[in-house]
Amino acid sequence: MPDATVRRLSAYLRQLEHLAAAGIAQVSSRQLSEYIRVGAAQVRRDLALFGQFGQPGRGYVVVNLIDHLRRILGTQQTWRVVLVGAGQLGHALLRYPGFAGRGFELVAAVDCDHRKAGKRVGGVAIRPLEDLEEIIRHTDARIAILTVPAAAAQDLANRLVEAGIEGILNFATPVLEVPQGVHMAHVDITAHLEQLSFRLVSNNIA
Amino acid sequence: MPDATVRRLSAYLRQLEHLAAAGIAQVSSRQLSEYIRVGAAQVRRDLALFGQFGQPGRGYVVVNLIDHLRRILGTQQTWRVVLVGAGQLGHALLRYPGFAGRGFELVAAVDCDHRKAGKRVGGVAIRPLEDLEEIIRHTDARIAILTVPAAAAQDLANRLVEAGIEGILNFATPVLEVPQGVHMAHVDITAHLEQLSFRLVSNNIA
């Protein structure tokens, strides 16, 4: 399945979580498509990939669809996540309220700066980088978030893979090599800005 | 053009910038596809959308392709960007080295906390929120980055649109309404983690 499809499933889930919090029980594919700005047919096609959830003319039961999407995305369970690099971005992530209840728990952070060791941020202890392998072993974390300077990223990614990490959320560098079988998602903030600049110049042309 | 295509163009551009920095002059679509982990046919199809850049059997001239992609993405010019919210994430963005030379310049930051006003972070002055409209007028910024608590996001988005901002990079909340014609890109960190959890559970099934 293409990344783009998985990304749309996340977008549906975010919107559904919002509807559920607002006490809304049913939603049509058309409504869902308007929130997300994709076609209603695309929504139905995406959701049909995983079975028949909607009822013709009545749409989807919000809590059921949330449940299905979480099962598809693998977040009906909670993943323990290790943060590598407790700089400013790392701190922001440790305090980020959006993980709770969505299947991800930051269980530890490491940083090469020993002065940070022992500090607690957002309820999570920062520990020295040397403890990385032991932390992964102890917590059974399978996912890591990498927020270190670009120059340190490849070495640390290698250590993470060596220690058994299977998925890396990479904020550090556009160019990171991981072996087949290890998954990587790259948060490229410049690329998000390029989405906007592309739309703005397309506007001008149109 | 779908967001997913624009996202791939950004990924090609990141890889090409890396190759250029390493002194590599030519690249084939197959090489490019391996770096990005998409099919070579997809790469050729994406690049053919915008004209004939490659030479059969020789591939692409790296600097030319960079130039073409920047023109397509609208980043051969520099976009002035205003940051709204100078919290920990905001600070990290002000110090982010990845914008320079890629067509985006953070020209100002605003924050509702007056104690931050006057501080300089990453060479950018933090100013009081009240100055927002004046800053946008003065700098001609068309893009804003929103890194405020979710509860404040919609009001501030409204102000940005009212002040003439045409593109919002939204870190704040999954649910933000902007009028047609205003473009929004949402950085959903949970969605990036869901990409990983999806792949990990798919691994288990396969």
| N-C termini distance of chain A | 32 Å
For this entry, what is the oligomeric state of its chains? homodimer
Q: Report mean pLDDT of chain A, rounded to a whole number.
A: 92
Provide the gyration radius of chain A in Å: 20 Å
CATH class identity of the largest domain in chain A: Alpha Beta
Could you give the order of strands across the largest sheet of chain A? 5-6-4-3-7-8-9
Structural class by sheet pairing and helices of chain A:
alpha/beta
* Low-confidence region ranges of chain A: none
Detailed description of the structure:
2 copies of one chain form a homodimer. By secondary structure, chain A is α/β, with parallel strands linked by helices. Chain A has 2 domains: 3-72, Winged helix-like DNA-binding domain superfamily/Winged helix DNA-binding domain (Arc Repressor Mutant, subunit A), CATH 1.10.10; 79-190, NAD(P)-binding Rossmann-like Domain (Rossmann fold, 3-Layer(aba) Sandwich), CATH 3.40.50. Helix content of chain A is 45%, strand content 18%. Chain A is built from 8 helices and 9 strands. Chain A has helices at residues 3-21, 29-36, 40-48, 62-73, 88-94, 132-139, 150-162, 189-205; strands at residues 26-27, 60-61, 79-84, 104-111, 120-121, 124-128, 143-146, 167-170, 183-186. A 7-stranded mixed β-sheet of chain A has the order 5-6-4-3-7-8-9. In chain A, helix 5 links the parallel strand 3 and strand 4. In chain A, helix 2 packs across helix 3. The first copy, chain A, starts with a helix and ends with a helix.
